[in-house]
Amino acid sequence: MKINSLIKKLTVVAIIATLGVSLVACGGNANKSSESKAAKSALDKDELVIGLDDTFVPMGFKNENGEIVGFDVDLANAVGKKLNKKVKFQSIDWSMKETELNNGNIDLIWNGYSITDERKEKVEFSKPYLSNTQVIVTLADSNIKSKNDLAGKKVGAQNGSTAVDAVEAANGIEKTFDGGKLVTFEDNNAALMDLEAKRLDAIVVDEILARYYMKARGEEKYKILTDNFGSEKYGVGIKKGDTKFVEAFNKALDEVISDGTAADISKKWFEQDIILK
């Protein structure tokens, strides 16, 4: 009986020991896998997937042939060459851009992406490369002359844009609008079309987009107010914690600026060099 009892005890101990080793091994592999995934940098990839709103002229948009073109597209291709990376552009829902980045569906947010403190909590930013202002655009015959004149008016902006953030931060002015809030749209083109159709009285939008759009559609049809919702800078969004890639990216961007490539791209799209040095 004693021998049988001893054998049973030894068997149980052996099983427990085996399970323990297996669990440790599995845990170790899981940790290694997790660490490997966490340590993965965009710098280690051969191809960079860039997320963009493909209606945002002139930064990144589809031309009449369905090709994605624009200032940011040309600049991204130039930086990609410096990094020895292929570049792929992927259209995304702009209101979901940070989610797309953090889920690994894209490697960069690059499309007139304004640097804000709130966004810094979600992504890493490259150095800024362009300045921008959130302007108020109306039709030329509008009697709106300042932000105060927006009271009781229908005002639109793109959902998920810094135009929305700027209006919401402007001391309760949004509550004075018709309906007590902004009318938001999936993209700026839809907002501009509603402005032209007089379903909106004004829109808040990036000045860079507004001036390009007005030039294409007829500047005499619109006006940009002197009063605005503040200035900002554009940067490129990179996954939070990927400081290795941020450093390499900024170096490549500096090279594209210093060798004159960025200036040439700027002149192509804006007829002048507006790159931040």
Automatic annotation (TrEMBL):
Q: Does the keyword Signal apply?
A: yes
Q: Where in the cell is it found?
A: Cell envelope
Q: Which residues form the Solute-binding protein family 3/N-terminal domain?
A: 47-273
A matching Pfam family: SBP_bac_3
Q: Which domain of life is it from?
A: Bacteria
Q: Which UniProt keywords apply?
A: Signal
Q: Does the keyword Signal apply?
A: yes
How is this protein named in the record?
Answer: Amino acid ABC transporter substrate-binding protein
The organism encoding this protein is Clostridium beijerinckii (Clostridium MP)
